[in-house]
Design goal:
This is Muconolactone Delta-isomerase. By secondary structure, the chain is of the alpha+beta class. 33% of the residues lie in helices and 30% in strands. The chain binds [(2S)-5-oxo-2,5-dihydrofuran-2-yl]acetic acid (MUC).
Length: 91
Amino acid sequence: MLFHVAMEVNLPPDMPKAEADDIKAREKAYAQALMRTGKWPHIWRVAGRYANISVFDVADADELHALLSGLPLFPYMDIEVTALARHPSAI
Ligand SMILES: O=C(O)C[C@H]1C=CC(=O)O1
């Protein structure tokens, strides 16, 4: 099942740089591990914002929630999820 996921990151401006760098490094490792499994096949930076548009390919919304809530940056993200269904005109 495919989901369109929009993530916006809002790190506190007063977070120490070392802490922010550590979370970002753990986030990258977590995200790339999921990409290698095929569960996170697309990620695009939203130009001009600390945000991304992603596509997840998972069994259901419960699996998606488990993966998203495991993101190291999850406590600092606003996330919008849209379930995708096959378009009748798609070939
Ligand atoms: O940079 C981001 O968009 C946030 C997050 C999502 C994947 C990743 O590596 O970082």
